[in-house]
Specification:
With about 325 residues, this protein is an alpha/beta fold. The chain folds into 2 domains: about 230 residues, TIM Barrel, CATH 3.20.20.70; about 60 residues. The protein is built from 14 helices and 9 strands. Helix 7 links the parallel strand 6 and strand 7. Helix 2 packs antiparallel against helix 11. The longest helix is centred in the C-terminal third of the chain and has 22 residues. The chain starts with a helix and ends with a helix. It binds flavin mononucleotide (FMN).
Length: about 325
């Protein structure tokens, strides 16, 4: 079955799912700066939603109808809940479902979700099958293994046998968290396995790829289909730009103003307190004289108008 994945450019660039970051607000900011080819939501717990409804997922699935292609990233170890949540995402207009099989968070792992899936491959297969019942294309995002790098051949082969549309690999183990460099050296072997086991499954790599230029170098060297960038947007919100250039202070401040505006626009739906905006300030307020002092002042603000007033002074 063809779906939007097959119409993506090659290579394609995706904005990684980032908890408390890639919500409807920040995705629109990245899209305004330099859009990737594909967006993911923050990870959203299927079991929690089935038990407690929308209040359990705190606005994580809020999106606008013009956001395409966009994938809902779900997690959870209960197949019935996954099926229901995936069906709901189809109704909400999502283009695909991605199953989180890499989150190292202790509570996710304890309940058998996130990286806990690596310890229970049979359930991982059941969860994928359940999500497919929504009719949406299903992908998975995982790590090389749970404790040891050499777990990857067995774990990734198992996932590749589940007929998923894309496999994104954060090139570290759960145990490594993000503390060691990503294992780029394994890409050729992983690619060979993909070619042999599941040539129709797209292969996306992730971890320590901070910009498009680096992504393109990796694609040229290894021939993967997609590049996923996460923390790179913290270093440069224009990270997906096709022709990278320096951006002015005004452009950066305008992006922050856009984020403030969108934050207000969606606040009722996302329910996020003002303080959640503070982690974003360092993205825009940097690399100019007085930036550190301004950031410090911004950390003491109480509402968006105070932020606007402070940044107007350096415009
Ligand atoms: C703040 C933060 C939140 C994250 N939230 C998620 C998430 O919701 N789902 C997920 O699959 N990975 C999540 N990750 C992992 C990233 O998607 C990505 O795999 C990791 O940061 C490595 O890629 P990078 O070096 O490009 O950032 C998160 C990472 C960070 C730093």
């Amino acid at each position: 079955m063809t779906n939007f994945w097959h119409n993506l450019p090659r290579p394609f660039f995706a904005l990684a799912p980032l908890e408390a970051v890639t919500d409807v607000v920040f995705r629109h900011v990245v899209a305004a700066a330099a859009p990737p080819d594909l967006f993911f939501t923050e990870f959203t717990n299927a079991t929690g939603w089935v038990h407690a409804g929308d209040k359990a997922i705190g606005g994580r699935l809020v999106k606008t109808s013009d956001e395409h292609p966009i994938i809902a990233q779900l997690w959870g170890a209960d197949a019935d809940a996954m099926e229901k949540m995936a069906m709901h995402c189809a109704e909400l207009g999502y283009d695909g479902i991605d199953i989180n099989m890499g989150c190292p968070d202790a509570s996710a792992v304890k309940s058998g979700g996130g990286a806990g899936m690596i310890l229970n491959p049979e359930n991982a297969a059941a969860i994928i099958a359940a999500a497919k019942k929504s009719g949406l294309p299903v992908s998975a995002k995982t790590r090389l293994g749970y404790s040891r790098v050499d777990e990857w051949p067995q774990w990734l082969e198992h996932l590749l046998r589940q007929d998923i549309v894309n496999l994104t690999i954060h090139l570290r183990t759960k145990k490594e968290m993000s503390k060691v460099p990503a294992h780029f050296e394994l890409i050729p072997k992983i690619k060979k396995m993909r070619d042999e086991v599941a040539p129709n499954t797209l292969l996306t790599i992730n971890g320590d790829i901070n910009n498009r230029t680096h992504g393109l170098e990796l694609v040229q060297r290894y021939g993967v289909d997609g590049i996923m960038i996460g923390r790179g947007v913290f270093l440069n919100p224009y990270t997906f730009e096709e022709n990278p250039r320096e951006h002015t202070r005004k452009e950066m401040l305008d992006l922050l103003r856009l984020q403030l505006e969108l934050y207000e626009k969606y606040a009722d739906q996302t329910g996020r307190p003002f303080d959640t905006l503070k982690r974003f300030f360092k993205i825009y307020i940097r690399d100019f004289e007085g930036a550190a002092e301004l950031r410090d002042k911004l950390m003491h603000t109480k509402d968006t108008d105070e932020v606007r007033a402070l940044i107007a002074r350096v415009d």
